[in-house]
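Re: export button greyed out
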Amino acid sequence: MSAAEAETVPPSHLRFRRPFRPTDAVRQLFHARELIRTLAERELRVRYKQAVLGLAWAFITPLALTLVFSVFIRRVATIDTGEVPYPVFAYLGLLPWTFFSTSVSVGGQSLVQNIPLLNRVYCPREVFPLASVMVAGFDMLVALVPFGALLIIYGFLPKVTSYWVPVLLVVQVVFSLAVALIVSAIVVYLRDLRHALPIILQLGLFATPVAYGLDAVPVSLQPLYVTLNPLGAVIDGYRRVVLYGLAPDWGLVLPAAVSALLMLSVGYYLFKRMETGFADVA
Amino acid sequence: MPEGGVRTEHLWKRFRADRRRMLLRDELQRVGARLRGRGGRGWRWALRDVNLTAQPGEAIGLIGSNGSGKTTLLKILSRVMYPYAGTAVAGGRVGALLEVRAGIHPDLTGRENVFVTGSLLGLRRKEVAQRFDEIVSFAELEDAIDRQVKFFSSGMQMRLGFAVAAFLEPDVLLVDEALAVGDATFQQKCLDRMRVVLRQGTTLVFVSHDFAAVEATCERGIWLRQGEVEADGPIREILGGYRQSIEEAAEADHRVEGLVHLMKAEASGANGGAPRTQESFEIRTVVESSEPRAGRIFLGISEGPAMPIFVLRRDVQLNGVETAVRCSIPRLPLPRGRYYVWAGIYDAPGRELLPWHPITHFDVVGPDLDAAPPATARLAPVHVEATWDVSNP
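Workaround output, generated via the alternate export path:
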């Protein structure tokens, strides 16, 4: 490049900055609802049609982990679950965890896997991680079936306080979506990060009260902990309302909810910012 | 911005000069290099300060050589890419055929793709359903529409992509060179469809290297050269200018290596003045050969690149030194314009003594050609003397 050419750059006041208007973004997302639905449908059909075990894959992972936890973890640590059978306790923790981990691992790669598309058709890019989160949601519904079976086997009835579940579910979805959005955008620019993803998720499984209860975290640190990891409050909440007949611990669920919402806002903002460059590196 | 309007203001776009791998390791290396003060961040400008305005219903042909920024401009208009600086707006629904591998998602079937694209364009399911049969029959995909698009041939994908873009009532239709993948019949069908869409008031931006197609479809031409607008105006003028630049570039970098050499090449009217329509015209050349040999000389006249309007040939006996070859045309059948003379010499078995290349150019003084009816391109400019007799008995 010659010196004269190097100097011809646009004046800085012309620099393109796409304004971030959440209402616009949501409206466009609404236009894309059919695409999200079709993508999720297609993904599900492929997953459950091609695999020999079909639907069973949705609960094999949580069931296997429940087995592993029941057999091994309890050998090395004592986990007090009160009158609740440990497998029920662990499986209920694995349901939201599996949802989260599927959202992040599938959603996180959803953009990279659709790279050729980023370069040739217009659509709001968040449809890809969103569709993955929907797939994870469907998986969780399927995984509820063995949970019912476990309850029957152990003759354990869910408590009436279960009506709090939807509130916790919202926090769970918001947090998972936030992480999926951020991870998917970063992976476009740093492709090798996706190889690190399984390891990070593996660590996350042990850093989250799935195999054990939230009481493993000192009470004074719990609010801070659930702010950083809202999933902790969600899992603890599920166990309280479904298994123990208690109301959710609002002192934990509230900070977790606020934190998850904040993460989603920041994550969505970051995503929309990075979105403008996706096609350039695709 | 009215529906169908297109406007860009001070549009700039750049890409990295090196196609880098998007890996953390490479990124760290780059950061390291920059910290050590060797921050060689190479950028290549794909578009530089492009300002365009199109009224709804205009048909614009976008021309320029490879890498001149045509596709980038279309991508920005269709919002697949974002500018580096400046703004670009296309009002209303934008239908685009940007690459051969059309369709929103290769894993979805043709049918799903049609509906999804429609919904992204803001059409209701029912509205898409109304046009669905038309799209399928236009794309000639009746048997394949329920197959996944990734199993389509490239021609099928292009047909689906074009049909979807052109039948979902876009306000702005962007068509890239992808059409070239289709067979001749389908290309013609696409051009016809583009004219129909234009009559309905859609704005068209058409990128193609098929000059005849562009000329027949578009009224206005925009010529991009290295990311800048070189010229903008009536399509005939713009194509003329573009052809001329191609010819000149070809003339400039034809360093011809042959067994014989051309010492002189001139074209003029017989009296040495400017060539005139339907008057006598001469091409004078001097051929140098190191040994006596028999050859066949071809002379051609072209308007665009490489495709001659007509070719003349003659067997010649070259002596060991210089041979002057003069070719006279008593009545030059060319209208006003700039033309190029091409020459090539071959021996009896067809071996190349002097490769076919442009040797000189000339400007004809004379009348313009009569204009063709709308949406019709003529193949080559030939001036034909004619007398008319119209009587009303």
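Chain A has one domain: 21-281. The button fix ships in the next patch.
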